[in-house]
């Protein structure tokens, strides 16, 4: 994959890319604690299928720029995604692939400006409306302890200790059968400075802060709670230690006609890395129909 930069929504965005320049844009969005490198196995598959596959580093994650407005809410992320569609010359045949926080951004972008996107693939985070009731169960709150810890100023002190051992443990808890050493090393590079780490944690602080005060971002965030009109493939690892399969609720009821829900066996939260052939084949097949 080649690395490039582009300015979108006021942020200098670094991205990895492969595939024909005139192919349909396939925008692949990463989550936490992760980077654009998480798509290193999927991007070549999409490129071989004729897509111009692009994996950006989300705002705040080096080498992309920090948020100039200090915003890390899901509405602003959705606006970033739509701005990337413009900056990269996307057409109405573009598709979105999102994992974890990337899924949040994808839901919002797909519903906010639906004419930009033909299909949607999301993984590990179901549509917010599907999880609204079950997320507050005791079992899921226990899994989500880090989310509440990130609301405290202790987070910036604890996470970097012992060479960011905290991040290593999150990957191990969420995908216990996967050797994440290479991936975690890339994450450490992306959040190496206090400002970068604060940005990554800032996503979680924005999550519990209520609607953003920018009306456009607030509207885009609200759109993410509606049903995006595109056919959507939703994937979830059966052994996900971050968001339990019991938490995702009735996903199919919150997806458009023509959508599919797939549980990937023997996979955890980072299912696209743990089962790359199965997940990659399913994504390419779904997008090609």
Summarize the structure in short.
This protein is of the alpha/beta class.
Provide a descriptive summary of the structure in words:
The chain has 289 residues and is an alpha/beta fold. The protein is built from 13 helices and 8 strands. The chain has one domain (2-288): Rossmann fold (3-Layer(aba) Sandwich). Strands 1-2-4-3-5-6-7-8 form an 8-stranded mixed sheet, with helices on both faces. A hairpin with a 2-residue loop joins strand 1 (2-8) and strand 2. Helix 2 crosses helix 11, helix 3 (101-112) packs across helix 11 and helix 8 (161-174) packs across helix 9. The longest helix has 14 residues, at 74-87. The chain is globular and about 45 Å long. The two termini are 25 Å apart.
Strand order of the largest sheet: 1-2-4-3-5-6-7-8
User: How many E strands?
Assistant: 8
Give the terminus-to-terminus CA distance: 25 Å
Count of helical stretches: 13
How many separate domains make up the residues?
1
Order of helices and strands: EEEHEHEHEHHHHHHHHEEHH
Which secondary-structure class do the elements indicate?
alpha/beta
Largest sheet: 8 strands, mixed
Residues in helices, as a percent range: 40-55%
CATH superfamily grouping: Alpha/Beta hydrolase fold, catalytic domain
CATH class call: Alpha Beta
Low-confidence stretches: none
Looking at this protein, list some descriptive labels.
289 residues; alpha/beta; 17% strand; Rossmann fold
Topology:
Layout (H helix, E strand, L loop, with lengths): L1 E7 L2 E8 L6 E5 L12 H7 L3 E5 L17 H14 L6 E6 L1 H12 L4 E7 L4 H4 L6 H6 L1 H5 L4 H5 L2 H14 L6 H10 L3 H14 L7 H9 L8 E6 L22 E5 L6 H4 L1 H13 L1
Parallel strand pairs: 3-4, 3-5, 5-6, 6-7, 7-8
Antiparallel strand pairs: 1-2, 2-4
